[in-house]
Amino acid sequence: MAEEKKNPLIGAFRSAPAKDQEPPGSKAAEPEKAVVLSKEKAKPAEKPVEKKAEKPAPAYAVKPGKAEEKPVAAPAEKRDEKKPEEKPSAAPAKPEDKKAAASAKAEEKKPAEDKGAEGMHESKKETEKKDQTDADGIPEDFRLNIVGEGTLGSVVMLPVEKIDDFEGHPFPVQDDKDMLDLVESIKKFGVLEPVTVIRSGKDPERYEMVAGHRRKHGCALAGVAQIPAIVRDMDRDSAIIYMVDSNLKRENISPMVKARAYTMKLEAMKRKAGRPTKAQAEAGYKPMRADEQLAQQTGESRATIQRLTRLTKLEPELQDMVEEKKLPVNSAADISYLKPQEQKALADAIKREDKVPTGAKAAELKKESQAGKLTAEKIEQTVAPSKREMFLPLKVTFTEEELRPYFPKKDTTIADAKRVVFEALDLRQRALNRQKAKAEQEKTAKKAASGKER
């Protein structure tokens, strides 16, 4: 062993660096760079990172004779060749490589953080949007305000006794055949369509009917204690419009009922529309008249709407005549312009004579009243019988049942019956003349007796 140490060749081989342990910067270290580059290429979808040109390692990086302290790169290559599935990061990297990897990771994290922030922002928007919609995803603007339930189309069972009729409801509920059929249907199947109510302004524990007066009355007649209802939160004018529109679907509505309903809706529409603002007035904005809107909604002319609404200005006696179809609508509309006292006088004259004024006479009454020249005599003349009415043609017709008891013979002709009738009338006339002559004699005798006493 001592002789080997003295051998100069052995020292030369030991001092010379091994092939696998070449100092950095030499050609033998290039495979390590290839490994690093291969690791960078193996990273999926990374943004290109600008790398600074690697400077060759200085000569003093590894001291001569101490090559064993340098990290061995060759074994790493061998491990990569044997086990390609292992991560290449198992081999220690240079400080420059560590900085580059750290910068690359920072670039990778940056878009992820931005995406996360964006995701949080989007989730916040979705939360706000969800707050503005209901459980079914319906926007808040399109959701009906249902008191007590809070969901669209919610139906609750309410006691019938806690629901009052709508104040001023113009549509009467009658116990006719249709009502009897409705009562039988309620007894068998119940109320199939819920009614619409609002909270009572006088008592918060009570409700006011908006649509469903007939169903409520039918439940009362059928002995049903509860009725399905939708409680809506709406102002008074909106409730009036809803009530009128829902009841105008009925058939055979009388002119007087239409008059009251149209009047209520027109007043509500005017209050909701309000007056145009100053800016609208300066811009020349002219809103559509309420009666024009109502005419478009109902399909009737504006003139018809105006005539019907005038009927509410009539006195109750005249309104009853319109309801009974005794007084025409056009004549009643003209009569509505008369003063209350004049209308009462006309109603008394109509009842007394059992005759209504014609359309021309009603128009004359309107003009005379507006001019302040209408008198009681003129009112009486409008319903006084005409000459034709005073001298009606006299025509009498007898049926066979009426005449047969007086003419039992089957061979009696019409001429024979007429002759007998006129003979009877002649005898009657003679009897009336004798009675009249006798009455005059008695009157003359009384006058003579009174003259003698004087």
Description:
- About 22% of the residues have low confidence.
- The chain has a 5-stranded mixed beta sheet.
- It has 454 residues and is mostly helical.
- Helix 14 runs parallel beside helix 16.
- The longest helix has 40 residues.
- The chain contains 20 helices and 5 strands.
- This is ParB-like N-terminal domain-containing protein.
- InterPro entries: Chromosome_partition/occlusion, HTH_ParB/Spo0J, ParB/RepB/Spo0J, ParB/Sulfiredoxin_sf, ParB_N.
Count of discrete domains: 4
> How would a crystallographer describe the biggest sheet?
5 strands, mixed
Write down the oligomeric state: single chain
CATH hierarchy class name of the largest domain: Alpha Beta
| Unreliable residue stretches | 15-44, 55-91, 111-122, 133-153
| Spatial ordering of strands, largest sheet | 1-5-3-4-2
Q: CATH homologous superfamily name of the largest domain?
A: Conserved hypothetical protein from pyrococcus furiosus pfu- 392566-001, ParB domain
Please report the total strand number as a whole number.
Answer: 5
Helix content: 40-55%
Q: What would the average pLDDT be, to the nearest integer?
A: 75
CATH architecture type of the largest domain: Alpha-Beta Complex
CATH fold descriptor of the largest domain: Conserved hypothetical protein from pyrococcus furiosus pfu- 392566-001, ParB domain
Question: Could you say which overall geometry the principal axes of the C-alpha atoms support?
Answer: elongated
* Rg: 55 Å
State the order of secondary-structure elements, H for helix, E for strand.
Answer: HHHHHEEHEEHEHHHHHHHHHHHHH
Number of discrete helical segments: 20
Proportion in β-strands: under 5%
Region (Disordered): 1-137, 433-454
GO cellular component, one term: chromosome
Family: Belongs to the ParB family.
Keywords: Chromosome partition
